[in-house]
Amino acid sequence: MSTLAVNAADRERLLAAYPEVFHRSFMQRWGLAIVAVTVFVYLAFCFSFFNVIPTFVNGNWDRAAIYIQDWYSWRAQPRLRFQNGQVVPQWTSRRQYPEGAAIDWLKPTSNGGYTVLFGGENRLEVTPSQVDVYIDGKLYPVAINGDRASLPAGAPARMEQDDSKVNVRFGFAGQAEIRSNQVYIQRRFLGWANFFFDTHSPFWGRSVTGVAGLVLFGERLDPAQSNASLALDNFLNNGSWQHGDILSKLMQTLVMAFVGTLFATLVAFPLAFVAARNITTSRPMNWGMKRFFDFLRSIDMLIWALFFTRAFGPGPLPGIAAIFFTDTGALGKVYSEALENVDDKQREGVKSVGAAPVIVQRYGVVPQVLPIFISQSLYFWESNTRSATVIGAVGAGGIGLKLLESMKTNADWDKVAYMVLLILLVVFVFDNLSNALRSRVMGKKGH
Amino acid sequence: MAHVAEPAQLSGLQESSRTILDHYQQQVRTRRIYTVVSIVVFLIVLAASLDFANEANSGKFFERLPYFFDFIKSFVPNSPLEIFRAMFDLPSPYADGSIKFDYTSDRVWITDSFYIPNFFYQLAITLNIAIVSTILGSTGAFLLCFFASSNLVGSRAVRWGVRRIMEIMRAFPEIVIAGLLAAILSIGPIAAIIAVSFHTIGALGKLFFEVVENADMRPDEGLRASGASWLERVRFAILPQVLPNFVSYTLLRTEINVRASTIIGAVGGGGIGEVFSLSIGRDHAAKTYAIIILLLVTVICVDQFSAWLRRRLIGRQSFEFGRGAA
């Protein structure tokens, strides 16, 4: 852009013609800067108030990587113990393989040791006296004598001596801790282990086509029931993923939102007529009802949830009650505002033909506000589907509590990821459902 | 609505009118059948849901109902003054060494002689969590929203991507973020701030870009004609129009975030929510009532203040209808 050339006369003329542009008040000129500086100072204060830097410095960042990897991958964690000159694999309770299964990355050798493959040219040859570490095909023997495993000379940075043990890192594929009495292996694989069937199921370890073939044409594995029902039963009762439990908890959360919003709608509907000034003429009644709505709304959903959890025990009932109480207030307020904005002509029309008061409301008011009411309730239903998760975590049960329990173990992040995916899916489905319903109720323009 | 004509009137009708009337009545009947069927289905779903909820609950509704009233009866403080002693951390005459009546040891000492009562301190933490995360979240939403609106960004892929990111941020359960961060950073307010901010970006971003899409495009055209860059167009054509609505939505979000940070607190994010969940779980009646009163007053004050500020900034336009979408 070329620079503007303005001579003195023009300047005067412009100044006189547009005083509001050139003579702005102090707040207009500096307001934004003042707000920005205030916000900045406030954030700086909070930065120190919440000890942001120490918290981040003291964070367990090494564990963070593991937790995040656990969302989309799984690790097998055998301990190869040295017993009487033999190597014996020992698994934790979370073992992903059945007893005696042949594992393609953990193979016994002829001399009583084990070979652990980490993909590519990386592997371990474990014997009680020496562990041969192969990194990119090169051998680094770790000698074990007495109560110490010692790092060989010239070892790469992936291997390090940590007190009396040697740690070997293979990146994503896993790591190994070589001690004097055992080698602790962590081997990581992409995906979720045993997602469909756990190791106790006869369907374990079969391919998709294998399972489908068994279900459709195979001999009955269990004479008491068909293969399809056995597969479904094995899937729902999968010990490590607990599909049945998780789906039932998800259902509880959905029921909380549905029933809570529905009851709130049913109760708020008549009460809103009492609160609306143009419908109920008694001012004390209007005022009282509106303050009642405010009261219900202002007590946090959390308070209602905890209160009813104490009374009814954890489960969907306190969740329903919490959503019901809060939303009766919120919906009542919105409904009564909608009622106060109705067009009076229709009411007068119905009244003028001599209709009873209830009929006047039914035919003069309800048709006008019903679309707004339904649309608002759908909005609340949608948002309650989300808040029911959090309410659940507080103690009202459902998927929220399940999530919280899984997170507290710090070992079930894959299950957390699974539940998050389910929740996201459900929220999207319900958003679209309520949007579709809303646009049908409100006509094309939507709301 | 269904207005069925009297037989006496019917006799006087012409053949064509009779046909119309018949069709009308036919439609009314069909509609009524649909209404009845949908109400019946609805009731069945409701009954099934209620039964399921009752079955899944650890205490059954009618079994627990008497205990419920007992619980309310047992949840009465020794004297109304106890509530205020608990609120202001004053010594209690009922003190028997148990934490139920021990109000004084929670005092937060600022200097040797001046203390802030614990509940006020916790409330301040919760309020600060809410405000900080609203600031961070609205900044994020502000930066994102322009890339999601069809009148400013031509590329379908960018719009689609940004909108999906917002959707996921909105629907991602806050407690999972808080829980993951609590595992990494240890339990505390920072996990709550990040969780609430994350959700705020998604929720506000959606409202913001809808405002931007409804903006009047004539100023933008003018600037475009004079050769302004994209940033200049956004700054001088769009921003002045949408800023009042942005501020209004942000204030509304502050109200919601005060509640959200209380709840996240109860799950382990610190602040008044955590204290409340502990005190109600341990049957500390006076402390619980003190916190309920504090929370009630705070929520009402925040709501009123934000409503007043919104009215001053953009007049009496009501944005209450947007609440559910947030």
Mean pLDDT of chain A: 86
Coarse shape of chain A: extended
Q: What is the CATH C level class of the largest domain in chain B, in words?
A: Mainly Alpha
Please give the number of β-strands of chain B.
2
Task: Please estimate the helix content of chain B.
Answer: over 70%
Measured as a percent range, the helix fraction of chain A is: 55-70%
Quaternary status of these chains? Answer: heterodimer
Largest interface: A-B, 78 and 65 residues
Order of helices and strands of chain A: HHHHHEEEEEEEEEEEEEHHHHHHHHHH
Do you know the CATH topology of the largest domain in chain B?
Answer: MetI-like fold
Rg of chain A, Å, rounded:
34 Å
**Structure annotation, total helices of chain A:** 15
**What is the CATH architecture annotation of the largest domain in chain A?**
Orthogonal Bundle
What is the beta-strand fraction of chain B?
under 5%
Spans of chain A with pLDDT under 50 lasting ≥5 residues? none
Tell me the count of domains of chain A: 3
Low-confidence stretches of chain B: 316-326
Pfam family, one (chain B): BPD_transp_1
Organism (chain B): Neorhizobium galegae bv. officinalis bv. officinalis str. HAMBI 1141
Domain ABC transmembrane type-1 (chain B): 123-306
Keywords (chain B): Cell membrane, Membrane, Transmembrane, Transmembrane helix, Transport
